[in-house]
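Researcher: Sequence of Deoxyuridine 5'-triphosphate nucleotidohydrolase follows. Predict its structure.
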Amino acid sequence: MSNVKVLLARIDPDVELPSYAEPGDAGADLVTTSDLVLQPGERALVGTGVAVALPPGYAGFVHPRSGLAARSGLSVVNAPGTIDSGYRGEIKVCLINHDRREPLALRRGDRIAQLVVQRVEHAEFHEVEELPDSQRGTGGYGSTGGHEVLAAPGDSGAGHRTEV
Ligand SMILES: O=c1ccn([C@H]2C[C@H](O)[C@@H](COP(=O)(O)OP(=O)(O)OP(=O)(O)O)O2)c(=O)[nH]1
Ligand SMILES: [Mg+2]
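Model: Prediction complete. Tokens:
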């Protein structure tokens, strides 16, 4: 994995800086600066205590952590959150507790999400009358099959049916 230098400023002087738990990890863990309890289905915007200046041509993506997701249902509402290279404010994370029964308590300093820094391209959009052919064509949204959904007893499917 290649490295890119990213300038970082602490907004909160006492919190842990983003860090990679293992050498090959794609994401540097981010912490919450506040204690909070998320009720089932509840969301909250939390600070991470850091701001960065990503070089032009890079962006940061705030991803959930899989362990917390599997164990507790914690996720990021807008996953992955996008950190623009020009953004100089505190990185914040919009957390959500997807568990249907259990509240989730988080403490200041807990690692709640991970920041993946990637190169990004700007598209130059060229409008044309017709797009070139491809094997997939306009098929999408399950056109290749492999995921039959079983309706629950008494479930009409209303509310989550999509015609494509
Ligand atoms: O999880 C996130 C997502 C975004 N941001 C910050 C950095 C990003 O550069 C800025 C704008 O994000 P985005 O473009 O996703 O939000 P928007 O709703 O389009 O806001 P804006 O109008 O400010 O672009 O907000 C975060 O701190 N955390
Ligand atoms: Mg935006």
